Amino acid sequence: MTMTLASAGSIESAVAASAAGSGFWLTTLLGLVLLLGFVALWPMFAIWLERKVAADFQSRMGPMYCGGFHGWLQSLADGIKLAMKEDLIPRDSDRFLFWIAPAVAFFGVFAAFIALPIAEGWQIADVDLGLLFILAISSIGTLGIVMAGWSSNNKWSLYGAMREAAQLVSYEIPLSIALLSPLLVVGSLRLGDIVAFQSAADGKSLIYWSGNGWFALYSPWTLLAGVIYYISSLAECKRAPFDLPEAESELVAGFHTEYSGLRFSFFFLEEYAMMFIVSAIGVLVFLGGWQPLPWISIDFAALGFLGKLVCVGVVLFKAVFLVWVQIWLRWTLPRLRIDQVMVTGYKYLTPLSFLALVMTSLCVHCGDRVIPTLF
Amino acid sequence: MASTVETDLSRPPDTYVDVRTQELQINMGPQHPSTHGVLRVALWVDGEIVTRAEPDIGYLHRCAEKIGESVTHVQYVPYTDRYDYLAAMNNNLGYCLAVERLAELEIPEKAQYLRVIMSELNRIASHLMSVGTYGIDIGAFTAFFYAFREREEILRLLEWICGARLTYNYIRIGGVMRDAPQGWVEDVQRFLDWFEPRMDEFNQLLTHNHIFVERTSNIGVITVEQAHDYALSGPNLRGSGVRWDLRRDQPYLLYDRFEFDIPVGTGIKGTVGDCWDRYWVRILEIGESARIVRQALAQMPKEGEVMAKGVRHLAFKPKAGEAYTAVENPRGELGYYLISEGGQISYRSRIRAPSFCNLSILEALLPGTMLGDSVAIIGSIDIVLGEVDR
Questions:
Q1: Taking the model in full, what pTM does it have?
Q2: In terms of CA atoms, which chain B residue is nearest residue A248?
Q3: What are the residue boundaries of the structural domains of chain A, listed by start?
């Protein structure tokens, strides 16, 4: 990933910079290439991690041979296998939709990476409405999944697609509302600003250490919002216990039943890239972004390029940790039933996220962090 | 049952909403991850709700009963392994008891103890398989591997004594194949000491998991009347609260010498006879089987014959007559009905397979449940298709 020259953070200035011939398009292109590399390599690592972690939980070894050390090349081998497979399109399917669905699913997630900062100023496009952009564009992936399920002309696939759609509408709401609570406090949708707020050392933390205010520790309400966000994000990326769209014991393989080869692997890439996106947003919004510890604020800007690299390391570490928790949950919990998924979303998470939002806004209004002192 | 949404005729025609909802007929199986083999269930669904279900069997039909009328009695024993392949020892046992009743054979005491130990170990292995795969049906993978890890140890013990891991052919007409090898008895004891605490771990992981309980309690409730109507047996019957176990109520082998409880469903987490109760009965039965094995190991004579005289040849002929014996298979009452004319080959051989009878209740249980529940219910009935189709 690379530094954007659009430092002012708006499209106009970017266009202006490019018009000035300062290499905006070159850097953006380079950034996109690096991003593509990351989005392709990350799922390989994540899949390998998932297999090893799952094996560890289940007292097995997992992949051990490919590549020599703990099967680290196994994902590459699987990727090559998938790429070599015949590209099957069922005769009675809707060919165009079937053909384009994996691309649509993958596009949404890939596009979301553009606005994701991994250090102050290190992102492809420094969008003012970064958080909103990521939420909006990553939901397009769901469209691809619904297209895949519909076009396959398979009843199980259709079930998977319908479940995905139902799940999306019931979990997008608490997820977005949960993200509103920290936004109210910060007053900006730019992810860099949200992290900067959490980096400022002014003793804002709930645990009254002299420290920065990670939103997970900022107040009980933002903590609640963080927990709601994490649970909803599991449903967003179809992870257990909300993996109903591809519940293999019920729906054979759900929406990708008819897919094979490279097209199937695109859904895989999409799922794991999505896991990273939601974890990274969780890190940036609730877990202090590139600040390594909740009670120490480090001024990375003063450390120059090396400081930026440390930031990247911290963000990646925390995001991988959250992904690891997702894996942990998947291999521990059974799957909910579809009506229980809906009940969890509508009856518990949505009201609770509203509670967090209302309480946070009262707190912001009253200038306190924990209990609103209206009178 | 197609229904049409009422259209409002007062509105202009171009705004008619012609929405037809139609029942969807969907095939679960024969290639489906959670039909436990090659069962096909034709489901009629309204959205996620199942309105009608028809189990369709026969994909694994192997003329089992006819083979029993074409090979000699001794030759037929290995075939019985293949019916309920998860509890092959119990199948061997049921058939051998039937032939022995015809032949009026006296079985040496040590052989009887070995038969008890083997069939109870096999019951533990079978129940572990059942509860583990039930975890997969509900979506919990790790429990399955835990169950398999324990089952593997049992298979190792069984392999040690008879050389096979799945199709044992160990219990033979007139006794058992051979005596336990040196050190085997001690190893079984060591295994039990290691195994019993492991079940607590398993219960923590799966049995008392909140999501698992939510998914299985109050689902697929079988009332006592229903259970009797559909001739259920085994854990499915006991899950409904009926304390009926052939090992106690119609003792065979030496089961009257052991102390053990018969766990029944009590509706701890929901209604009596729901999926969780059936599952819980299996978990408790694992413990009871371990108790029986411990007692049998302690009581078993050190020395002794393991085979009755004069049956170890293919030309063995039981007396003419008919016999029905039933044993408590892990899945219920396994009966063998034989008619002999005094020759080497049975005139009629009939198997009363517990899975076959248990399966029949699906038709009554599935309607009204959700698609995810139907998987939970099929799993809780615990069928083995090798036995259903025979």
A1: 0.84
A2: B33
A3: 19-84, 95-366
